[in-house]
Amino acid sequence: MSREVRLATIPDGLPRPEHFVVAEVPRPVPGDGEVLVRNRYFHVFAALSTLVGGRVKNTPIPPLRPGDTLPGPAIGEVVSAAGELRPGDLVFHWMGWREYAAVPIGQVTPLGDTLPDPVAHLSKGDLAYAALTRDAEVRPGDTVFVSGAAGAVGSMAGQIARLLGAGRVIGSTGSPEKADRLVGELGYDAVVVRGAGPIEEQLAKAAPDGIDVLLDNVGGDQLQAAVAAARPGARFVLVGALSGQLSTSETGLVELDPYQLILKRISIRAYQGQQERSDWLERFGDRLRAGDLTFPHVRVAGIDQAPGALHEVITGRHFGTVIVEL
């Protein structure tokens, strides 16, 4: 037998643990071209809530309906040989939220020993690296602002910006405790705290000479504040929009002054997708072993705790990437 997390009902608002069920099902039997994987870890991410009931349109993953099993990045162990895969091989795939998965061979990636800890393959460092190097083109001496700095992307982005030569790295988060960790553990120079005063005023104080780069996970008033703080020629890359994704109203929407974008020659790009992972993984492994990068994460034990973990991620309880360990 196997267990998996399914959507039970479509919530009126943001999903809570009672909207999901941990179902016991027969262990899947792989068909032709599939491999049976026993999952060991899977990533819990807040944007998954946008798939519930199709609340957000045009998402790359189909919307979730009652009875559907949740998807997500996972690391598992091959159970039976298939193609070049052998029992015991560790692989990455996107059929998380279940104990066993029959995955098409073309959708699994063998892990090897590039990283010192297999769970680090669930890091969003590759996303942050691509956004900062390719999309925002961070340059030595830049002042970089990372919104949502204590999340899965932001907790890697600040460290990577520093390694790329940023002169000052500023983040935003939702609590003074997280702000202290961002400065004390991850090398942020200053942190804007939601609820501690107007975001625009806090950012102006943290970056009195303005910002050159924004890596935006949040949108909303933080994007608006970044426009006000931008230096001429600033480069913005939009990675997420959690202020809107995690809102049941229109409070996440914000008006930007197009004239300011023109006057300051601000370029705004959407994140363009992942680059080739092999280059990033080699860099990441070397930096982890040297202690130049860390992978901030929280491990939650057992699939029964997964629905609660999603709610905790949505409400901002944790620091870094949240992973369910099976």
Distance between the termini: 14 Å
CATH topology of the largest domain: Quinone Oxidoreductase, Chain A, domain 1
Instruction: Please count the helical segments.
Output: 9
Domains, number: 2
Q: Report the sheet with the most strands, covering strand number, pairing sense and barrel closure.
A: 7 strands, mixed
Secondary-structure element pattern, one letter each: EEEEEEEHEHEHEHEHEHHEHEHE
Task: Give the number of DSSP strands.
Answer: 15
Fraction of residues in β-strands:
25-35%
Structural class from helices and strands? alpha/beta
CATH superfamily of the largest domain: Medium-chain alcohol dehydrogenases, catalytic domain
Q: Examine the secondary-structure arrangement and name the CATH architecture of the largest domain.
A: Alpha-Beta Complex
- The dominant shape is globular
Which runs of at least 5 residues are low in confidence (pLDDT < 50)? none
* Assembly state of the chains shown: single chain
**CATH hierarchy, class of the largest domain:** Alpha Beta
Q: What fraction, in percent, of the residue positions are helical?
A: 25-40%
Radius of gyration: 20 Å
Q: Residue-averaged pLDDT, rounded? A: 93
